[in-house]
Amino acid sequence: MSTEVRVPTLGESVSEATVATWFKKPGDAVAVDEMLCELETDKVTVEVPSPVAGTLGEIVAQEGDTVGVDALLAMISEPGAAATPSEAAKAPAKAAPEAQDDAGGNVDVMVPALGESVSEATVASWFKKPGDAVEQDEMLCELETDKVSVEVPAPASGVLAEILAEEGSTVAAGGKLAVISGGAVASGASGTAAPAAPSSSSGRDVEDAPSAKKLMAEKGLSPDQVTGTGRDGRIMKEDVQKAAAAPAAQPAAAPAVPTPAAAPRAPVAADDAAREERVKMTRLRQTIARRLKDAQNTAAMLTTYNEADMGGIMDLRKEYKDQFEKKHGVKMGFMSFFVKACCHALNEVPEVNAEIDGTDVIYKNYVHMGVAVGTPNGLVVPVLRDAHQMGFAEIEKRIAEMGKRARDGKLSMAEMQGGSFTISNGGVYGSLMSSPILNPPQSGILGMHKIQERPMVVGGQIVARPMMYLALSYDHRIVDGKGAVTFLVRVKEALEDPRRLLMDL
C-alpha cells in the first residue's frame, strides 16, 4: 500500500513553492511526522512531514522544482503489505515509539493545528509542572503564534510526567509538547526533561533549520561559525550562505556580528543603559511590524481626507437607542453605520474592494469587512464575512463579540483571514487625524477619528457641529484618485444623512 505526499496549504495568496531540500532519499525508512523535505515560498519556509511510517519510494518533485498547492511530491510505501494481519500491531512501534506507550498508559500532548500558513509557535507559558495531576481538557499550556494565542488542553486525565518543550522554545505544528502518565506518581525521569531537539554540537537549546544543517555540512561549517538570525538565534539557510561567503571578503574576521534588519543602534551611555530594559518582541508584534513595512514597500499607498458631520447619526441614536437595545439586546454604536456606509460605497467603487494578483485585478462580489481591534498584545483585525448582507443589529452583535474575543486572545485563524476592506477606529483613543496603513493584500482602509465640535458654516451661519475627519488610504496602483475621492464622498453622504442607507442611495 502506498501513500501520497502532497504540497500542504502554503498560506493566503501563496499558490506555489520551490522544493529546497530533500532530507530523505528513495529507499530510506521514514517515521510518522518525520520531516521529508523543505519548501520555500516568497514568504516562508515550509517543512513537509511524513503522513505515515514506511519507506520513501519515488520522489516526484526534485530539488529546485516549482510545485503548486496539493501537487504530488513523493510516494511512501507502507510496511507490512505482505503481512497484513500484523500490520496494525507493527505500525505504532515503528512509526513513533514515543507517541503512545500502551503498557505504561502514557499519552502524548501534541501541538494542535495552528491555522493556515502557520507552521510553528512559541511555548508562552505552562500552567502545570511535572508531577502535577491533570484532568482531561484541563489547560496545560499556552502557545503563541504570530497571529493568535492557542491554549492546549490535556488529552487525558493523569499525571504530567515530563515537559519536552520548555517556555520560550519553538515548536512545529504536530510536534510533541509533553507526556501524561496514567500512573498516580510521575516518573523519576520527569525532572530531567530537556528542551526538544537540542543542538548537541553547539550547546544551544535551539533547533536550527534542517536546510541550514545540511548546508553547514556541505560547507564544512560548525554552528559556532554561523550567526543565527532566526528566533532565539536559530540558524537559517540564509545565515549559512552569508557565513560561507564571509571568508572571501574577510579572511581573518572577528567573531561574527549579528546583521540586524535595521541600522545598528547608536551607542548608549553606560548610566542610561543601566536604566533600560530590553524585551524580545512577541511573534504578533513582529508580524505586525513586518506586514506594515511590507505594505509600504509594496503598494503605491496614498491617503485622501474628508470630514463628516456626525449630527444626523447622533440624533438618530439618541432617538432610537433604547428601543434598539431592548429589541436586539445590543447597543447601537457608530461602527454599524460606518460598515453599512462603506458597503454601499464599495458597491459603487469596486476597485477599492479589489486586490492585485500579479498582473491581474481580482474584483470581489462580496464585502468581508475587517474591523481593527486593539488588544494588550497588539492590533488584530477580525473579519465580518459578507458584511454587505448584514443588518445594523447583526453588525453590532458580531463586532461586540469579536472585539471581546480578540482582547481575550480567543480569535481563531479563520476569523482573521480573507478580509477585503478594513475600518480602523483611532478615534476611540482620541486620534484627531491619521493616515492608516493598508492591510495587504487589500487595496483600501478607512480611518475613523475623534468626534469633535468645530465651527462650521450652515445656512450662512457659523454653528458648532460634531465633526469627524475621515481618511482613506488606498493602493494607487489599482485605485485612481477619482475613485478614492468618490468612495469617501459617498461614505460622507451616507453618514451625514443615514436615511440614504435605508433607501440604498
Automatic annotation (TrEMBL):
Coiled coil: none annotated. The gene is odhB. Residues 204-217, 231-241 have a biased composition (Basic and acidic residues). Residues 84-104, 187-274 are annotated as: Disordered. Its EC number is 2.3.1.61. Its cofactor is (R)-lipoate. Keywords: Acyltransferase, Lipoyl, Transferase, Tricarboxylic acid cycle. Belongs to the 2-oxoacid dehydrogenase family. Pathway: Amino-acid degradation; L-lysine degradation via saccharopine pathway; glutaryl-CoA from L-lysine: step 6/6. GO terms for molecular function: dihydrolipoyllysine-residue succinyltransferase activity. It catalyses: N(6)-[(R)-dihydrolipoyl]-L-lysyl-[protein] + succinyl-CoA = N(6)-[(R)-S(8)-succinyldihydrolipoyl]-L-lysyl-[protein] + CoA. This is Dihydrolipoyllysine-residue succinyltransferase component of 2-oxoglutarate dehydrogenase complex. E2 component of the 2-oxoglutarate dehydrogenase (OGDH) complex which catalyzes the second step in the conversion of 2-oxoglutarate to succinyl-CoA and CO(2). It is an enzyme of class 2 (transferase). InterPro entries: 2-oxoacid_dehydrogenase, 2-oxoacid_DH_actylTfrase, Biotin_lipoyl, CAT-like_dom_sf, E3-bd_dom_sf, PSBD, Single_hybrid_motif, SucB. Residues 84-98, 187-203, 243-271 have a biased composition (Low complexity). Residues 2-77, 106-181 form the Lipoyl-binding domain. The keyword Acyltransferase applies. The keyword Acyltransferase applies. Residues 207-244 form the Peripheral subunit-binding (PSBD) domain.
